[in-house]
């Protein structure tokens, strides 16, 4: 078959070549652009979401990133403490182990007619060392068991020292806590420790050994420096 316009064939071929020369590079450029955009959006998807967020949301994200910095970059403020200032105004004394003796009365508190029984009270007005008048001890002890070796009595002791001050002690032997006193001994603490030599005679006399240790604290208690 012959073309109706044979002279147009070269022109058509020339037009096709020109179109191919323009279209093919454009197609390649479009493919490259699409590939580049895909790569960019695949790695920057989180950034794009950030761009779509409100300024407040983006600010929160930045704050979280700063919070998640390594610990070695975190600067902490030192804890400021107020030192405690104590007044070293304290005197400690002791009365060596001494044997105290004297008379005591055992009172039948519950009226059972039998002595001793639980709840009975032993009262001693003056208990002193063998060859001295001081220290002098007044004692009131309540029996918690008729057998004092099974359960020691609960006692309150008032000890008058040679200087005239008095110490108040409470507890069960062998350890009684000094909880206070009179005069300069009002701010005192310490302990009276008895030994295992307690005896009671048929005439009501009692005897025991005791060590008295105490400290007189300064009137100025611990103060807090708030400066």
Which key terms come to mind for this protein?
8-stranded antiparallel beta barrel; single chain; rod-shaped; 36% strand; alpha+beta; 227 residues
Order of helices and strands: HHHEEEEEEEEEEE
The helix-and-strand class reads: alpha+beta
Most strands sheet: 8 strands, antiparallel, barrel
What is the tally of beta strands? 11
Q: Please, what is the average pLDDT?
A: 75
Helical content stands at: 10-25%
Question: Distance N terminus to C terminus?
Answer: 115 Å
Number of helical elements:
3
Give the uncertain stretches in residue-range form: 67-87, 220-227
Shape: rod-shaped
Radius of gyration over alpha carbons? 51 Å
In terms of DSSP E residues, the strand content is 35-45%
Largest beta sheet: strand ordering:
2-3-4-5-6-7-8-10
Helices, strands, pairings?
Elements: H1 9-43, H2 45-52, H3 55-67, E1 84-85, E2 90-107, E3 121-129, E4 136-142, E5 154-160, E6 166-172, E7 175-181, E8 188-194, E9 199-200, E10 205-217, E11 223-224
Antiparallel strand pairs: 1-11, 2-3, 2-10, 3-4, 4-5, 5-6, 6-7, 7-8, 8-10, 9-10
Structure commentary:
The chain is α+β, with helices and mostly antiparallel strands and 227 residues long. It contains three helices and eleven strands; from the N terminus they run αααβββββββββββ. It has helices spanning 9-43, 45-52, 55-67; strands at residues 84-85, 90-107, 121-129, 136-142, 154-160, 166-172, 175-181, 188-194, 199-200, 205-217, 223-224. The strands form two sheets. Strands 2-3-4-5-6-7-8-10 form an eight-stranded antiparallel beta barrel. A two-stranded antiparallel sheet has the order 1-11. Strand 7 and strand 8 (188-194) form a beta hairpin. The radius of gyration is 51 Å and the shape is rod-shaped.
């Amino acid at each position: 078959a012959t073309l109706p316009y044979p002279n147009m064939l070269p022109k058509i071929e020339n037009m096709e070549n020109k179109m191919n020369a323009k279209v093919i590079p454009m197609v390649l450029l479009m493919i490259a652009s699409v590939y580049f955009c895909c790569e960019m959006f695949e790695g920057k998807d989180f950034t794009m979401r950030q761009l779509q967020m409100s300024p407040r949301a983006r600010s929160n994200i930045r704050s979280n990133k700063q919070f998640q910095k390594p610990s070695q970059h975190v600067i902490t403020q030192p804890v400021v403490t107020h030192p405690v200032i104590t007044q070293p105004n304290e005197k400690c004394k002791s009365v060596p182990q001494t044997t105290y003796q004297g008379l005591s009365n055992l009172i039948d508190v519950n009226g059972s007619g039998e002595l001793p029984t639980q709840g009975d009270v032993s009262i001693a007005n003056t208990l002193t060392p063998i060859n001295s008048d001081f220290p002098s001890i007044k004692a009131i002890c309540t029996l918690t068991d008729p057998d004092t070796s099974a359960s020691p009595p609960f006692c309150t002791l008032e000890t008058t020292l040679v200087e005239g001050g008095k110490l108040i002690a409470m507890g069960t032997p062998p350890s009684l806590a000094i909880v206070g006193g009179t005069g300069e001994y009002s701010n005192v603490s310490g302990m009276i420790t008895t030994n295992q030599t307690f005896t009671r005679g048929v005439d009501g006399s009692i005897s025991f050994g005791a060590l008295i240790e105490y400290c007189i604290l300064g009137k100025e208690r611990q103060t807090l420096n708030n400066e």
